[in-house]
TrEMBL record:
Originating organism: Lachancea dasiensis
Protein name (database record): LADA_0B05644g1_1
MF annotations from Gene Ontology: metal ion binding; ribonuclease P activity
A GO term from the CC aspect: nucleolar ribonuclease P complex
A GO biological process held by the record: tRNA 5'-leader removal
InterPro entries per record: Rpr2/Snm1/Rpp21
UniProt KW rRNA-binding keyword: no
Family: Belongs to the eukaryotic/archaeal RNase P protein component 4 family.
Domain of life: Eukaryota
Compositional bias annotation for Basic and acidic residues: 1-11
Keywords: Metal-binding, tRNA processing, Zinc
Amino acid sequence: MAKLNKKDKSQGKGPNVNEHGVILVPPPKSVPNKEHMQRLNYLFQLSTFHTMANDQDQNRSLSRMYIRNLDLIQKKTKSALTPSFKRQICKSCHRVLIPTKTMTQQIINESKQKTARNDVLVLSCECGVRKRFPVGLNPGYQPHVERVGPIYMSK
């Protein structure tokens, strides 16, 4: 039997890295504030359902009440919503933003060059609030939270 050096023993304490330089991270054992996140998700789904199903209520008051409750719970529990969650809610009127139902979307280019790099996606809510996202600069952009794949080590 060969003796183990001190260097060989200390390798087990460092990050677990495979041959491609990818850090292998075990999944978390539990999600913090799981009950709060489940409640927020349920309120969002309920609001979306009422927005889609109820055509008689043009003001969408029940759906907006659910989103208002979601916002209050999120602030009280200090739970962070993902960027995709936030993009689907109007901050001023608390509506769920659904294309052709509660909002209109268009790509505009107000620059002098009129190149594709300067395209801006404009989401206009029924209340008049507009959200603008630059889409021409990097069409494949995804926020850090939505990126799929392993975490790479920088060398």
